[in-house]
Specification:
The complex is a heterodimer of chains A (551) and B (155). Chain A has 551 residues and is of the alpha+beta class. In chain A, 38% of the residues lie in helices and 18% in strands. The chains are: A alpha+beta (551), B alpha/beta (155). The complex binds iron/sulfur cluster (SF4).
Chain lengths: 551, 155
């Protein structure tokens, strides 16, 4: 993985010192809260219902075991014993004391991490396919480009006060596991006439106004991507709306101008910038940093399959089918660590779990893990011979629920339990759902089904892009839930990106599970062989499911 | 403090006059700045000083100014709210694309914690918000030795 050089280190440590000074001035009353606000946000610090929440950046979701241990240390020493992984592949700690945050950032700096720009109206963590580097279908590893973009956007003097937050995602594979169509900028690896490059999308997003991104460039070689991103950022910084925060995202600007006029503006800007070609020697050096520290020996192909156990233990067999994914190298696997055990808040991990995961990373995955868009973790380099022992270790920590990509693997925002902006609870409803859907055999029968839930229209739980999306709304002080189906973050040609359609009036928390049961029943009745829920919805239409809810 | 400014990282007495509601009857010199529309209007007049300061509001179009910068003694970037980041792009374009070498002054809601960002975008003169301590603020310039955009382009 990318290793900080001396410059990275000096900058990140200087940033900690700077924030320490700002916190001291804040506590001494020399810095007013409204002046401090953007400073703390750009250091990852939010003010939530119970106090401060710290969001730590995990660039493109890649983690070392030392970093995981540092999370455990923070959870234990400074929080209440757990951390929460987010849809942006970051981790949040919910109960922070302001005066301790500089020390926490100091611990993070020691393991080459920080919380810079994980919040605020600036360019946020660049996210990637969690299978990056080891996906069998990958055209190009997106992480070196993401790392160059990280270095570009971090503390960029010109773009610290954009009209609104700005999110970039990169996918290196035809199956888009990074939701690139729902980002301010989405970048996809493409091959045109044998040349590898990148397709650039712009103006996607969720929130109050969901938009599927439009293509602004069908192909750019790697050398041009950063300068092109700069052109987009500058046009946005100068022309994005600043009069209304709900109309300030780039999707509104792109929508108002139309993609062609927007492209003209960006291209005019880029004329002045395109002489800045990315340093490809450094790029190649960074590419090697991601490959040189992991190995995939050929002899792994001859590892014994855990067939005895698989035949004897249906739970283990199911876990292999559900939580273990294909790897680029023979004899290796991507193993999902499910953070969605029944009754658990989605995405949470306790101190003990974090510590165990760190040692499993060392023992079975060359010290690496990734955080995923679905708020789980993966161990990306697991050999066939280790699957069985790893499984037992995960079971012991309640981390082996066989529910990846099922309805019980929901994405869920913090909702009313933590968030000041919430209209309704989301975590307790998600818990109810995965208590209802806790029969692994049933989950496997239902198959792939993304359920996403947000506690308000800001859509941090990505409800628009869930195959089933649930939105919490407030009706006369009582939380209600609006249910939509047919959304899709985008995953290849057969299942394009889509925003879900609402199927009926909002229901109470107690009624949610009943509605889901009806939807699943209808799906089972309608499905054609091994069609997924989404495929069935697409084929028979949302209305078929609407009647179902009303009847 | 109300009469002090930071200029090239030194605290000095304020030297510029910002006439943000227009020139009216004021005597115009190379150390007074007037709004962009007034600046354009003045350019054609025979009695105009050879150079004068020009104010850029966040919503002003900086591109139109390029061909008239030889008449601008300095550019005053107004920051009505420090969270409005358009002035940063204006400064950047003035310096790197239009080659403007005169002073670029940031005035308005200019705070210590944004000085370095402004400086790196090309601002070299600062009228800070009332109540800010210019001398204490100077430390901002020395906080980071390097910039994070190192190593992107071949040198
Ligand atoms: S969707 Fe709403 S409730 Fe959920 S985290 Fe975002 S702002 Fe808070």
């Amino acid at each position: 993985m990318y290793k900080y050089n001396d410059i990275d280190k000096r900058i990140v440590h200087a940033r900690v010192d700077e924030f320490r000074g700002q916190v001291r001035r804040r506590l001494a009353g020399e810095l007013a809260e409204e002046d401090f606000l953007p400073l703390r946000l750009q250091n990852g610090l939010y003010n939530q219902r119970h106090g401060y929440m710290l969001r730590v950046g995990v660039p493109y979701g890649l983690l070392s075991s030392d970093q995981m241990r540092t999370f455990a240390l923070i959870a234990e020493r400074y929080d209440r014993g757990f951390g929460h992984f987010t849809t942006r592949q970051n981790i949040q700690f919910n109960y922070m004391e302001l005066e301790e945050v500089p020390d926490i950032l100091g611990h993070l700096a020691e393991v080459e991490m920080h919380a810079i720009q994980t919040s605020g109206n600036c360019v946020r963590n660049v996210t990637c396919d969690p299978h990056a580097g080891v996906a069998p279908d990958e055209l190009a590893d997106p992480r070196p480009l993401a790392e160059m973009l990280r270095q570009y956007k971090e503390l960029h003097p010109e773009f610290a006060f954009l009209p609104r937050k700005f999110k970039i995602a990169i996918s290196g594979a035809p199956e888009d596991r990074a939701a690139t169509f729902f980002h301010d900028i989405g970048i996809q690896a493409v091959e045109v006439n044998g040349e590898l490059g990148w397709r650039i999308l712009v103006g996607g997003g969720i929130g109050r106004t969901p938009r599927i991104a439009a293509e602004i460039r069908d192909f750019l070689p790697t050398v041009d991507v950063v300068s092109y991103v700069e052109a987009i950022l500058r046009v946005y910084n100068l022309h994005g709306r600043r009069d209304n925060k709900y109309k300030a995202r780039i999707k509104i600007l792109v929508g108002a101008l139309g993609i062609d006029a927007f492209r003209d503006q960006v291209d005019a800007e880029w004329e002045h910038l395109k002489h800045q070609k990315l340093d490809m020697d450094r790029y190649e050096q960074i590419v090697r940093m991601f490959t040189d520290d992991v190995e995939h020996p050929a002899e792994a192909a001859a590892d014994p399959e855990p067939s005895t156990r698989r035949d004897a233990d249906p739970e283990f067999a199911r876990w292999l089918r559900t939580n273990v994914k294909d790897h680029k190298h023979p004899g290796h696997h991507i193993v999902y660590i499910s953070l969605k055990a029944p009754g658990q808040p989605p995405g949470d991990a306790t101190t003990e779990q974090l510590l165990v995961i760190a040692s499993l990373m060392d023992r079975y995955s060359q010290g690496r893990a990734t955080a995923t868009y679905n708020q789980n973790l993966t161990l990306p380099h697991v050999r066939t011979r280790d699957l069985e022992t790893l499984y037992d270790a995960l079971v012991a920590q309640n981390l082996a629920t066989a529910n990846i990509n099922t309805i019980a693997d929901s994405i869920c925002c913090p909702g009313l339990d933590f968030c000041n902006l919430a209209s309704a609870h989301s975590i307790p409803v998600a818990q109810k759902i995965n208590e209802r859907f806790n029969d692994p055999a049933e989950l496997e029968d239902i198959g792939k089904l993304h359920l996403n839930m947000s506690g308000c229209v800001n859509a941090c739980g990505h409800h628009h892009t869930g195959h089933i999306g649930i939105l919490g709304v407030d009706k006369a002080g009582v939380g209600h839930y609006q249910i939509a189906i047919g959304g899709n973050p985008g995953a290849g040609e057969e299942s394009p990106a889509a925003v879900g359609a609402i199927i009926g009036p909002a229901v109470t928390a107690d009624e949610v599970v009943g509605v889901l049961d009806n939807l699943i029943d209808r799906y089972k009745a309608e499905r054609d062989q091994d069609e997924t829920f989404l495929e069935t919805v697409r084929r028979v239409g949302v209305d078929t499911f609407r009647e179902n809810q009303n009847g | 403090m109300g009469n002090r400014m930071i200029f090239d990282q030194v605290v000095v007495p304020r030297r510029y006059t910002i006439l943000d509601d227009g020139p009216h009857e004021s005597v115009l010199t190379s150390e007074t700045a007037i709004p962009l529309a007034d600046f354009y209007e003045l350019l054609g007049r025979e009695d105009a000083p050879s150079t004068i300061g020009v104010i850029l509001e966040p919503g002003d179009d900086v591109t139109g100014l390029e061909s008239h910068l030889d008449r601008a003694s300095f550019v005053a970037l107004h920051f009505p709210k420090f969270t409005d980041g358009r002035g940063y792009s204006h400064a950047r374009l003035l310096r790197t694309r239009y080659g403007f070498e005169g002073a670029i002054l940031a005035y308005g809601d200019v705070l210590r914690d944004q000085l370095l960002l402004m400086h790196r975008s090309g601002v070299n003169a600062f009228y800070m918000r009332e109540g800010q301590d210019e001398v204490a603020a100077l430390e901002a310039f020395n906080r980071f030795e390097e910039q994070y955009q190192f190593g992107l382009y071949p040198t």
